[in-house]
Structure formats: C-alpha cells, structure tokens
Amino acid sequence: MSISSLQILQNRISEAAVQCGRNPQSIKLIAVSKTHPVDAIRFFYDLGVRNFGENKVQELVDKWDTFSPSDLEWHMIGTLQTNKIKYLAKKVNWIHSIAKPEQLLELNKRLTKENRNCNVLIQVNISDEDQKSGCQSEQIPDFLKIATSLDRVVVRGFMGIASLEAEPESVRPQFKNLHQLLQMHKSNWNAPSIQLTELSMGMTNDLEVAIQEGATMIRVGTALFGNRNYLTK
Ligand SMILES: *Cc1c(COP(=O)(O)O)cnc(C)c1O
Fold first, then answer.
1. Model confidence over 58-108: pLDDT tens digits?
2. pLDDT at residue 184 greater than cutoff 80
3. CB of 162 closer than 6 A to ligand 1?
4. 233: pLDDT strictly greater than 60
5. Does the Cβ of 123 fall within 6 Å of ligand 1?
6. What does the pLDDT read at residue 133?
7. Confidence grade of residue 228 (pLDDT, cut at 50, 70, 90)
C-alpha cells in the first residue's frame, strides 16, 4: 500500500483505455478494501479515491461507522443474504451483487424507511462455475420486470466475476458476454428505475481485458492494498 501502488494502477487503467480508444475517465475505480483496516481506506481517500468496495455486510457497517465522509461512496460487492439488506440501506451507495429478484423489493422497502436511494447492479454468473453466485442470464427479465415498480432503487447495469485463470486473455469471452447482455436489455425497458449503462467487471488480474471489453467500473483490491492476510483479517 503506497502512493505508487495507486499511480501504477492509474497508469494501467489509462493505458488500457487509451489503447482501445476509450476515455480513462469513463472507468470508475472501486478500491476493494475488504480485510484491510480503516486506516488503509483513509490513506487512499486522502489521495483522492472516493469509491470503496466491501464484500461482507458486517465489515462494511463497521468501517462505515468509523469513517464515512459524505463524499465517499460505499459499494457492496459480495454475496448478499436478503435478510441483511436492512443493515445496508442506511449506508451503501451501490450494491453490485443483487442475485435474486426479491432483493430488489426488500432493498426498496428498507430505503423508503431511510428516505434514501441506491444504485444496484444485477450480478450475472458469467463463469459457469456454480460456486460463484449470480443469476443466470435468462433470469435478467425477471429482475427488470420487478424493477419497473421501484422508486428508491435504480438498476444501473450488470456485474460479473470472471473465472480465475492464469492467463487473463482466456476470460475475454466472459466479459464480452456480459457486455452483449447489457446491449440486449438496454433499450427494452423504459422506466426511471432502469438505466442500464454500467458494467462492473475486471479485478487486479484481468482489468485490462475488462476495460477493452467495455467495463465502466473495475473492482480492484490486491493491486492497491497488497495481498490479503485472512488469518489476521
Ligand atoms: C475481492 C474482490 C475483488 C478484488 O479482487 P483483487 O483480485 O484483489 O483485485 C473484486 N470483486 C469481488 C467481488 C471481490 O470479492
């Protein structure tokens, strides 16, 4: 964790974007701070990073309670249990991991109580590994049908986790697939609560490929914070 880890990452993002004719500003960096202390969040916040991602509800809540300047955006990116959405409604700005249609209704209900809004992404299983969560692409219309009636939740796009491969090039078809799904569903729905513009895909190992395939949000932990030590958490 250092200034240079952020600079090196920003260079990777810029180079990948420029190389495929995209504006680097069109790619939002989500700094994945899971397992790292609040001081690490504060460090990158002071360097201008404003989007942080966590994969556990309790950890996000604890960190929010300690450090939550008003211009910091919190992203829930981990597998979500519907009964824990109530803890997030007050704190989170984005949920990337909506994987069941009823989670949209639960979130909308809880947000109404808090008088807040939230952006969400539908997590789609793009890797065909069943240990990874996310809905099947055929289910997407079920989510969007429900979303048309929501007034606190805005569905902004899709999230995918590619399979872990030694060679990032080999996950390109998975990212391409998610992009195609976005194109396909984008113009089919006309409701203020459905604005399908975002693709959350790409992590430390495969972010260049993800950017080439249209990622608008990348979720990066290791390249910024270093390796995670789960033993000391
Ligand atoms: C941990 C995590 C990341 C970040 O992974 P790195 O390889 O450390 O960049 C991204 N997305 C999700 C859903 C994660 O759980």
1. 999 999 999 999 999 999 999 999 999 999 999 999 999 999 999 999 999
2. yes
3. no
4. no
5. no
6. 81
7. confident
Report phi then psi at 218, rounded to 5.
-115, 145
How far is ligand 1, taken at its centre, from the CA of residue 22, in Å?
23
- What is the SS3 string spanning the chain? CCHHHHHHHHHHHHHHHHHCCCCHHHCEEEEECCCCCHHHHHHHHHCCCCEEEECCHHHHHHHHHHCCCCCCEEEECCCCCHHHHHHHCCCCCEEEEECCHHHHHHHHHHHHHHCCCEEEEEEECCCCCCCCCCECHHHHHHHHHHHCCCCCEEEEEEECCCCCCCCHHHHHHHHHHHHHHHHHHHCCCCECCEEEEEEECCCCCCHHHHHHCCCCEEEECHHHHCCCCCCCC
- Joined together, the tokens standing for residue 122 give 């539908």
55 lines ligand 1 (CB under 6 A): yes
This prediction has a pTM of: 0.96
Q: What percent of the chain has pLDDT over 70?
A: 97
The reply to whether ligand 1 has any atom less than 6 angstroms from the CB of 78 is: yes
For ligand 1, atom 11, the nearest C-alpha belongs to: 219
Is residue 219 lining ligand 1, measured as CB closer than 6 Å? yes
